[in-house]
Specification:
alpha/beta, Rossmann fold, 2 domains, 11 strands, elongated, binds adenosine-5'-triphosphate, ATP-binding
Length: 652
Amino acid sequence: MSSTSYTSSSADSAASGPASGSESDSYTFVTAGSSNENDEEIVLEFNNIKVWVENFKATKADGSTEVIKRRDILRGVSGKVESGQMTMLMGASGAGKTTLFNVLAGRAHTVESSGSILVNGKHFGLAEFQEISAYVTQDATFLNSMTPDDILGFRANMLLPYSMSAEEKQARVDDVIELLGLEEVRNVRLGEPGVSARGLNFVQRKKLNVAAALLVKPRILFVDEPTTGLDAAMAKSVMLSLQRVANSRKLVVFCTIHQPSVFVYNLFDQALIMALGQIAYSGSVDNIVPHLDKLGYECDEFKNPADHVIQVLDSRDGDEKRVQKLIDAYHADASSSSSYAGPSEVVAEINDDGAPMTRSDRIPWYGRMYQLTKRALKVTLYNDKALKASVGQAIVFGILIGIIYSLDNSQAGATDRVGLLFLTTTNAIFLSLQGSVFVLIAERAVFLREVADGIYSMPAYLVSKVASDLPFQVLYQLLFSVIVYFTTGLQQSLGRFLIFVLVQSLVALVGSNLGLVLSAFTGDAATSTALAPVIIAPSMMTAGVLISTEAIPVFLRWLKHVSILRYAFTALLLNEAEDALVFHCTPELQLPNGLCPINTGNELIAQRNANQEPTGIWSRVFILVGFYVFTVFVAYLGLLFSVRNQRKTKRS
Ligand SMILES: Nc1ncnc2c1ncn2[C@@H]1O[C@H](COP(=O)(O)OP(=O)(O)OP(=O)(O)O)[C@@H](O)[C@H]1O
């Protein structure tokens, strides 16, 4: 049987993220077809996998760096993993486990590689290979306000063929929930792991992670360190579930595993053990200890065999020669039934029932947008504490303003109008900014994971986020405005009221976008909220209320042209006072000519320079819309930055 070699470059594969469905010419997988049938035997083989990096910058012991032309990470690794069995990939730190796993799972984005990968002996492209495999990451990162039903339902809608009926998709969700034993918690909100009294515990979250991967009925399941962060009892529960999955669904379950307990170790059927970027053992778990014993490394009766294996094959003490001898001895052992003997004959043709999804099967962009926006609305509604807090803020702040402000036509009433309108715009921008910072920070890890998994694209997320935010910001501002407008003595007219709500809503929406921008760039809530006043203060100071424009240093006066609060405040002032309002004053305030300092609404407007270019309310509203569009664009750059940053962090 011939095997076709493949090569990959980081640029190619990074561009086509996992599950993205994009073809890559750089890979030729030697595999058989895809299937959704569960009773077929699957054999995944990999042959002579080499992975290396070129021009590697290595740090020497003295701290200086040198550029190594080629650094080999995997040096011709071969092996075989079969369905219906649990196979572990074990080895000391730095042995090459993650690299091998990533190459096999199509996630090695930053290295060069060559070799061949076979499934039952037939050719497969990268996209098709990804159709039959799934990767379970270590982190069970989900939206904590959602339930397992919501999470799996969303993924089913996004990942399963678009032509599949809603009932069939629901049946898939029911199936994986039952398989992983999550029935009792399927309608429970996840909550904060280890913090929320109710919600899913660590084990249930790990199982949900597996369930999410199984939705697409993969035939090969790559599981990255499924027991990390779990105590022995929890690890046992998760591993027993995986074993049930492997046995009942005849899947290839291939796990990297770190320091397993004796129980977990013995749950595995097969093992691949790596050292120095090579296979140091491949075969039955039962034979590992006798194999090392034969090579002169006896395992104490009471010692965890996993610890023994890792210690014996650990080269980090500097004794690479010793470890290399053990590897050579394993490969030289021709009698070893476990050693991989090269590509096998075709094991079974996989029938065509589950042929890879064509592009037309995939959910179209508008379907993705719909699902994402629906989820974002759900998250906001589920997050009832934040929702109640925002509604409460709008009402309480509105009532407070209503109690304090009582506008009349006196001189004080004129200046109080200025203060009130400035206060309402400032309040709108700060409150919405703060709210959106916390929302994005809470969702950031999930967003990054789902984008990396190819479930949706970053722009789709942004558009859905912005779209779902809109009704809520308008609602908060409507509530606030109803109270403020009719209790403070602002001019009572429906037209003016609606313009007031419109301007307030636009300011709140821009504030919300600024929150997205800050949290996307900084990645944490504390820094974002600390930076918020720094961004908004120049806008406040150049709005024409706190300080007159003439008093601002000349070189900073341009700031008023980019002051969203100036446009919003002056729009509201024009709305309130243009060609309206007559002010009077007591005799002691009268000027020598018998007039008051401010006699009309238009004088009040002129005093605040609110009649300067651009003229009129609607041109200001138009500029506010421009601010909105611009901040959506900057939020796009922010999210792009976080996605790229995440890729870089993963590489380093
Ligand atoms: N992109 C890369 N560039 C340079 N060296 C790399 C790269 N990826 C991995 N390596 C190196 O290759 C070796 C194997 O790394 P790998 O992460 O596969 O080991 P591992 O067995 O998974 O270790 P651990 O258990 O600590 O995760 C390590 O020495 C690592 O530093």
